[in-house]
Specification:
The chain is mostly beta strands. It contains 1 helix and 14 strands; from the N terminus they run βββββββββββββαβ. Strands 4-5-6-13-8-11 form a 6-stranded antiparallel beta sheet, with no helix packed on it. It has a 3-stranded antiparallel beta sheet with strand order 1-3-2, with no helix packed on it. It starts with a strand and ends in a 10-residue tail after the last strand.
Length: about 170
C-alpha cells in the first residue's frame, strides 16, 4: 500500500507546478499529496473468478491497493452470455467497453455498445450487459463507493441466457 509522504493545503493562487504532486480541489484550495510509489495491478496478476462462463478479474477490489473510494473489475463476457439485471443501492458505476460489442440495458433503455463506449449507471438503477455478438466482449467496470467483486458478480447475478446448471459447458 502506498503511503502519503507529504500533505499540505494551499490557496488556489499558490498551486505547485511539480508534476509528481497529485491533488484534488477543496472549497477555495487544493489539497496536495505525494504518493510514496506508483501502484500497478496487471490483468494477468489480478484474482479471477468465473461464474456461468462470465469471468471477472478484480483489478482493485474494495479497499485494495490503498484505494478508499472505488473498486475496479475487468469483465469478460463470451458470445451468447449475459449478466442478469442487477442494481447496487449506493454505488454509481461506469462500464468502459475495451473489446467487442454487445448491448447494455440501464433503467429499461437498451442500446448497442462497442469498443471505446462508456456507460454510466447511477446508484439504485437496474442494469445488465449482454454479448449478442460472435466475439468475446470485455469491459472495465469502476464502482464508487467501492463494492466487493464477490458482491458484483455472484451465481445469483451472473447467468447465461438459457443456461441450465446441469449442463456441461
Amino acid at each position: 500500500m502506498a503511503r502519503v509522504t507529504h500533505l499540505e493545503v494551499r490557496p488556489l493562487a499558490a498551486l505547485p507546478a511539480s508534476p509528481d504532486l497529485l491533488g484534488f480541489h477543496g472549497p477555495g484550495s487544493f489539497i496536495w499529496y505525494k504518493a510514496a510509489r506508483m501502484l500497478v495491478r496487471r490483468l494477468s496478476e489480478a484474482p479471477a473468478e468465473e461464474w456461468h462462463r462470465l469471468r471477472y478479474h478484480a483489478l482493485m477490489d474494495a479497499g485494495e491497493l490503498g484505494a478508499r473510494n472505488m473498486s475496479v473489475t475487468w469483465l469478460e463476457i463470451p458470445a451468447g452470455a449475459e449478466q442478469t439485471l442487477r442494481s447496487d443501492e449506493e454505488a454509481e458505476q461506469v462500464y468502459v467497453v475495451v473489446r467487442g460489442a454487445g448491448t447494455m440495458s440501464v433503467a429499461g433503455d437498451t442500446q448497442g455498445v462497442t469498443e471505446g463506449d462508456l456507460i454510466l449507471v447511477p446508484p439504485a438503477t437496474d442494469h445488465s450487459i449482454a454479448n449478442d455478438g460472435e466475439e468475446a466482449l470485455a469491459c472495465v467496470s469502476v464502482q464508487s463507493p467501492p463494492v466487493a467483486a464477490a458482491e458484483l458478480y455472484s451465481d445469483k447475478l451472473a447467468e447465461v441466457a438459457g443456461y441450465d446448471d446441469d449442463e456441461d459447458l
